[in-house]
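Page 42, continued from yesterday. The earlier attempt failed because a stray header line got pasted into the input along with the sequence. Redoing it now with the clean sequence only.
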Amino acid sequence: MFDLEKQIAAWRAEMLRAGLKNPNVLDELESHLREDVERQMSAGISVEQAFEDAATRIGKADFLKREFAKVGESSNKHHNMNLNLSDANPEPRWATYFKAATFTLPAVCLWLFSLIMLLPKTRQICHAAGVVFPAIFDTTMGLLALLRQDHLILIGAIAIALLLLEWRSAAWPRYRRTAMGVGVFVVNTGALVSITMMFVMVVLAAPHLMHQVK
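This time it went through. Structure tokens are written below.
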């Protein structure tokens, strides 16, 4: 099985053997490599092929060494090399957080609306129809009440955690976009599942209500 981390470590070792000793340069090149691999994998390319293509785009170690010698490693001007690295530049942090907020906010608002307005009505319909109301909805309502009381604490905790990651974690910029993407996916999926479950419960209760009316 292809081990991406092992291959990246071998690639980095090859760079060191070729004379690229500057850790900052190596870290940024590795960041370019990982970003390129992640982008290709999200497009459906296998991890092995994505790594090979990304490594080829960055270039061989001896070529990189000559290019760094021309522009000067100490000044970190490797962006002036004639390499196709523009597409692999890490996304600015503000852009990542802005996108995450943009894609999360509608789902959060819809989820809160459904919990405040739709869930109580769903519960009422189920009880009137004699349909068992799932316990998970009661748990969800309890969590909602907790969020109403402590939402500022929750928001503050998330903000502090992100600030600490930006400040103290050298690896966070490498995984920031992926982590935010996973978070957005989880929130949107949770909202969709919650609303779908409410709709299903109403559909199940409708025949019982119609029978009672008759």
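Notes: The chain has two domains: 4-88, 93-213.
Reminder to self: strip header lines before submitting.
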